[in-house]
Structure prediction request, 126 residues.
Amino acid sequence: MNSKKLEQFKEALVELRGDILGDVEKNRKSSQTDEFAEMLPDTTDEAARLSTRQMILNLGEQGRDRLKLIEEALGRIDDKSFGSCQRCEKKIPEPRLRVVPFAQYCVACLDEIEKEQNLERINTIK
Ligand SMILES: [Zn+2]
Prediction:
């Protein structure tokens, strides 16, 4: 994958991460012009930092899992392995990456993994 495309996926991932974290900083800046900001004249950087931490704590398991996947995908962009399936190492199709930029597996492997998990579930029931 060329570096321009990698850069685009990186931006998408950073944006997703921002969405999850609530992007306190951006919200604070954009709200400075409206009434909300005037109601909160003592919003400090410290308060913003604290609320970011609080948001991570409040994310819940699903949010933290997703955040982890996004961080891992960003790591794969840095080490140039981004876009390859973590199981069979085949390329993950770009349309899929556009929908799920933090995808770890190709669709075939995802099916396999789901089947395996279902089998495990059946085995544990026995
Ligand atoms: Zn695969």
User: Anything to note?
Assistant: Residues 85, 87-88, 90, 105-106, 108-109 surround zinc ion (CB under 6 Å). The domain at 3-125 is CATH 1.20.120.910 (Four Helix Bundle (Hemerythrin (Met), subunit A)). Residues 3-21 form the longest helix (19 residues).
